[in-house]
Amino acid sequence: MTILTIIGARPQFIKAAAVSRLLRQQCRELLVHTGQHYDYGMSQVFFDELAIPAPEINLGIGSGAHGAQTGAMLAAIEQVLLEQRPDALLVYGDTNSTLAGALAAAKLGVPVAHIEAGLRSFNRTMPEEINRVMADHLATLLLCPSSTAVANLEREGLTKGVHLVGDVMADALLMALARAQDRSTILERLKLNPGGYLLATVHRAENTDDPARLQAILAAFAALDEPLIFPVHPRTRKLMGSYQPPPHVHLIEPLGYLDMVRLQQAARMILTDSGGIQKEAYWLGVPCVTMRDETEWVETVELGWNRLVGADTGRIVAAVRDFTPPAERPPLYGGDGHAAERCVAQLKEWR
Ligand code: UD1
Questions:
Q1: pTM, rounded to two decimals
Q2: What residue stretch is flagged as signal peptide (predicted)?
């Protein structure tokens, strides 16, 4: 059996790191990189550090408006599917690459498997929400990280081919943690003490493309009185223009996974609008302040380790100053490091 896997953006490289190696022990996998993320620090560094197999095909489709980017991927993936004739297609998450892959395959009658199925923010203004709803309805194998995700699919009438497998990002994190301890020198390079700094990331369109929200977030960073390390996503960098940070805010380039894991693990608190980082913060036992109005990872909020504060300067600052998480941190989203094995088992049984 041949499975054609579509990846294109940073979090998909991390998920593929957990799944690809196992998948290749069971069947033939062709990895297709759409090119959505193309800077060294957004793409190749993950392949190098995490030993992800080199993509067999790179479509080289980078920047562009949503329609143009997704459309170019759709046409190119269709061509690959016609040439390679795989038995199935695998997509991850909620990016434009996910949607393009799922749609191209479904139109050609190639069965689609979706890892990280069933996540919902219930906010249709997010491009990711559109992408994940569409991908789930095009897929016939839906591999879910949480029981909330399974319930979300059930409400949309999707019950066939739905399996709770846990989160493959936990597998990737566990793999990276040991390596990061040995190989990452980020704390030394940035002269940081464990627990002595905040770590922030911002890249969601809802925050970066709305000047008022971006300004409110940057104003909150400026109002804090401890070192804040801010690896800046290229999208955010472009939209920040000539922003000059105050001395305690350290803008750095996007990081590879090992440095990012080490930096998260030793942070006093994490401020983010990323989905993956909310979970990683939980698994690492670092309190997380999420600068969004809703989250797909509701369990992290319910358990008291994640606070949703929107893009509100006062709420961000208040959360950073007086947020003490509870003593309890029960296992979440599988988190046992075996989700990828469960995904591969379902993929094998499915066909
Ligand atoms: C995408 C995903 C989002 C995911 C995120 C992870 C969609 C709609 N969004 O958002 O779900 O959480 O990836 O990072 O698919 N750029 C560079 N260099 C790069 C990559 C991007 O300069 O290596 C620029 C692009 O030219 C573009 C901007 O950053 O102007 C945004 O890139 P895009 O691919 O649209 O999505 P992300 O914001 O990264």
A1: 0.95
A2: none
